[in-house]
Amino acid sequence: MSISFQVPLASTLTATLALTLLQGCASLKRPDNIEPVAEGRAYQAQYRQPDRKKSRYLESQSMNETPCLPLIGGTVEDSFGKWSGPALSPLFGEKLTRNDLVELVVVGDDTFSGDYVVSREGDLTLPHLPPVKAQGRSVPQIEKSLRKALIASGFYAQPPQLTLRILDFAEVSVGVTGAVFEPHAVRIGAVSGDRADRMRQGAMGASTEARNLSVALRAAGGVRPDADLSAVELHRSGQVYRMDLRGVFEGTDPTDIMLLSGDQIVVKSRQCFQDDLMRPSPISPPGVTLYMSNLTQPASGNAESAIGRSVREVPYGARFLQAVVDTNCVGGIKLTNANRHAILFSRNPVTQVSVVIERNIERLLRRADRDDYDPYVLPGDAIACYDSTVTNIADLGRVTTVVGTAGILLK
Question: Do residues 361 and 33 lie in contact, with contact meaning Cβ atoms separated by under 8 Å?
Fold first, then answer.
């Protein structure tokens, strides 16, 4: 009686599992999205599902530009010198900030000569003198104030000979908000003897690029494709400065201001995807970190495919197909590996609404207008690959064989 019960149970289990696996081979419904992906009104028009018949080609860029807000700074031709805010000239040059280490040499005077650190209040405090403002000021400006202070305090009748030299640049804390991938307060800079060429650091005129605006933007993930680079705002000491960074992005304007502790950077959004910003630049993301999954054919596992445990990095500006190739989803034997599907999981950084895009890889590879439907990958995106029908059936046969063997053993 016990044996007669186990045999039909094993057979039923095998049949049920086989039926379930066969259902799994069937086509699944395409992912639903809140954003109007089909009409090309998602974050990227490239998210659209490819049409079988197409009369126009390469229209995704013009579709992306349609909702763009006007450039705050206007066109490149009319943008310079038209800001309503303060002039930008005070921003240029080397400025001191809190915790910078300086050396003061007053010729023939050991009382005031020595090393000083800019205080939390942004001052230099010398013996017997009132504090001298240093935050946001250049070395020549501070030297001039020191001479005046020494005369005003009665220590000198004539301006003394003195030299101020920066020994070490401190780390600065800067807030970065708006159209960057990781808006937050960043800490940049710091040049110390254990990490820099001591001879260069100790030389007269030594400086640093580590406190520049471009460094802060990259530390905040880089500017997003919807950023308005014509009028990036710098909030400093109650003033708001607007800077046109299009030249920095293009490489035609090397100007890159030095930041101070307490500065706030605001990058406005144009509320649209700008294809021309999807390329490397001094203020773009250094690369794109993707989450990838390709668990079976043509690569039998992530370890042997040299895919990291969770993420992999591709160059900024890479597209979906490039990332799919990078995760070993393409290639191998055509009969078994063609007609695979890949899924792109992304998120609109403006609205924080997620989107899932499914593509038949081979169909996309063979379309002449593939660039219209080949999305750019963004930091934090995820890609998953599904095997072809032939591979699914082969795996189904393997599993049903194992279950059938188990059924026989149950007898």
Answer: no
